[in-house]
């Protein structure tokens, strides 16, 4: 970076000497590498060697390094002490600037947040900027969103790639719509890719008018995509495989070699998977499934069986003529059923979210079937007979496969249900309970094959090795509750709960509880979650062993960074609750505050880094962010919230 920018950084540091410093570690120490792609047809990119630091799970670069590598304008106005970024301008080196970009990050360093003035196309912007050794560093994804270039991170080989010719897409999860797209591309010729991607781009990105480039960016930004078997012995991450092949087909180029995925499936299982009385048989089953997925013929499971239940290949659609038709349906009956549902399956594929597809399947089953009989679902549609719960679950299973939703069957002695992977987590779809998903824990005791169910949630869970699962108790970790939204608990329920768990609670606490709802509603944050968090932080308002006191009006430990610290204080309970709501909003999303900011630590949060209760715990947050470092912090809040809702 230029000397005058270095001077500015030092000046800012001097003026903000009380700013807290954090540790920045060299990205190279963790094996991360950086590549830059400058053309649409370039899927791999060329290796670059800029200085990169990791801070709290994010990568930070020198702004000028990125400007040169990705070719956008970066200038400094000495009169106003401001940096100007021009995405549509070319990078122009300044006098005396070196032509070589070298990595100077060899050891860990202290990083201090600095209020460097930045403008994007003439408009003031306020991304988080750190001063490290006298230079200003900005987060790669934060800048990518501002300048609009694509970013991908391969978690298998730790390669960061910036795509100058592609739009920005936020890091996301593998969805049913993506699964559906991959299933279509698998059987289509390259000449059909243009029309297929044009149809799926708006569905997957959620943006009308999105083109194939936006689709490819969305695919590349998937954090943990499922493994795809392209041949008998070659495995790839699905998102990288299909984004590379779409790019090659639509640019008329030869696809660069997609990085292969070579880890054995048994090594992806969570460590506690085999902590089970049936450990030996469970391990044997898992190895059988591993061989089927990663063996010489990983695309077929026709000869595979496990001792405790169903097995099925989650990567490929179940064929209608397969074993899930039940009751010995003929080929003609299967073909007729497929034709009957063809229009509905087309509508199903056009839906944009997993939840929409789930609701559509439920409504379709409700419309087409009656229960209480023994007919096959491939003959009883149109209410032409009554089906059993197992046959209905088989119908749902086929529909989930058509929708691109990973799923498998589970059963008790008398009924059956579907285990489905919706919006990044496993849950139970039980037709008798409507289209609201149920907890896996609620079904474990009646599942005749619970070991097999747990096994398959490991085998068929995209990116299972990277989820911070620390218990075999499924529901607590696989059902995520959004922090933003409208409260579900009422003030009366919250008041009843606190009186029950703390009969001596102060009347002032009872009186202020409605403020959680009104302050939460003002910012679009669930006030009942904030109240549950306050109960945890204050020991149910006993303040026993708490770092804060009632008179501080700080009911969430805001500003308590270490043992013995008193934390922040606020003039009134309303202001204390408002600060807590604002801090939760900082973690939940990137939307601006409605009220004036009074949370003293609002600007220190990486916005949107913990959108769910569970991710408020640093140990459970995949990015390593969060409100508190204690194990199961978010789960404890969730448990309190669930108890409140029963009042």
Based on the model shown, name its key terms.
alpha+beta; 20 helices; four-stranded mixed beta sheet; about 15% strand; 21 strands; six-stranded antiparallel β-barrel; single chain; about 650 residues
Please describe the topology of this protein.
Elements: H1 3-15, E1 21-26, E2 33-37, E3 46-48, E4 52-55, E5 58-62, H2 63-70, E6 73-77, E7 82-86, E8 109-113, E9 117-120, E10 123-125, E11 129-132, E12 135-139, H3 140-147, E13 150-154, E14 159-163, H4 176-187, H5 193-205, H6 212-220, E15 227-229, E16 235-237, H7 238-251, H8 279-294, H9 331-340, H10 342-350, H11 354-368, E17 370-375, E18 386-387, H12 389-403, E19 407-411, E20 416-422, E21 425-429, H13 441-444, H14 450-459, H15 474-478, H16 491-501, H17 507-523, H18 527-538, H19 573-588, H20 633-645
Parallel strand pairs: 2-14, 7-9, 17-18
Antiparallel strand pairs: 1-4, 1-8, 2-3, 4-5, 5-12, 6-7, 8-11, 9-10, 11-12, 13-14, 15-16, 19-20, 20-21
Widest β-sheet, arrangement of strands: 1-4-5-12-11-8
N-to-C terminal Cα separation, in Å? 59 Å
Strand content range: 5-15%
Structural class label: alpha+beta
Number of strands: 21
Overall pLDDT level: 81
Largest sheet: 6 strands, antiparallel, barrel
Q: What would you report as the Rg, rounded to the nearest angstrom?
A: 27 Å
Question: How many helical stretches?
Answer: 20
**What helical percentage do the residues reach?**
25-40%
Shape: globular
Any low-confidence stretches, pLDDT <50, length ≥5?
1-18, 293-326, 463-479
